[in-house]
Amino acid sequence: MCVNKLTRESIRTVATELARRDPVLASVLDQHGPPPLWKRPATLSTLVRIILEQQVSLASAKATFDRLVVACEGEVTEGSLVNLGQSQLADLGFTRQKARYTFTLAQDVAEGRFNVSSLARKSDDQVRTEITARLGMGHWTADVFLMMALLRPDLLPTGDLALVKGLQELDETTYPTSQSLIQRAMIWRPYRSVATRMVWQSYLARRGRRLL
Questions:
Q1: What is the pLDDT of residue 1?
Q2: In this protein, which residues make up the domain named HhH-GPD (predicted)?
């Protein structure tokens, strides 16, 4: 089986394969079924939303993002973001840092230093290099974009708290370093993006929540 881009159908197939390899994921699949695709558009708007989600709850980030969409009259583009400026972004609920990151990102796109639409044609490593070169955007931001917007199959966002906490709960142990998490996830390769979705699925279900 070779999967280059995730679909609902391939996620179901891969989840079954992962359950065969890993008893912990087998229990998740038995209890919850295959995970959702959790797809977002591969756009500047999605990158801005991921910036908002850095180190805050998804609900809080979504509330701020929804206000942004209204302020941009329904379409978050580099032009609308530059026109708003950092001050108005802050008025919508962006922290000072995130307002700066978002405004600088919009400028990079507007002035041709960064092309979001070109990312789909690049390798995982190339996408990660492009995104992490932007102000305030690290590996977690790149990994989430690769997973959810470009639907790449083998990402492990080691900086994601829901992944770390969710897997610790499932395994009833701790993963104190990124390397320990990477080692644990070796059995999931080359479909760590699907395994991560399964861990998220369990994490959210335990808390009576869903991914927004």
A1: 66
A2: 52-204
Whether residue 141 contacts residue 51, with contact meaning beta carbons closer than 8 Å, is answered with yes
Q: What is the pLDDT of residues 143-157, one digit of tens each?
A: 999 999 999 999 999
Q: Which of 74, 73, 71 is nearest to 85 (CA)?
A: 71
Q: Under CATH, which number does the domain 8-38+154-206 receive? A: 1.10.1670.40
Averaged pLDDT score across all residues of the chain: 96
**Domain boundaries along the sequence of the chain:** 8-38+154-206, 44-148
pLDDT tens column, 176-196: 999 999 999 999 999 999 999
Q: Does domain 44-148 have CATH number 3.30.465.10?
A: no
pTM here?
A: 0.94
Q: How many CA atoms lie within 13 A of 135 on its CB side?
A: 14
Q: Is the Cα torsion angle 170, 173, 177, 182 positive or negative in sign?
A: negative
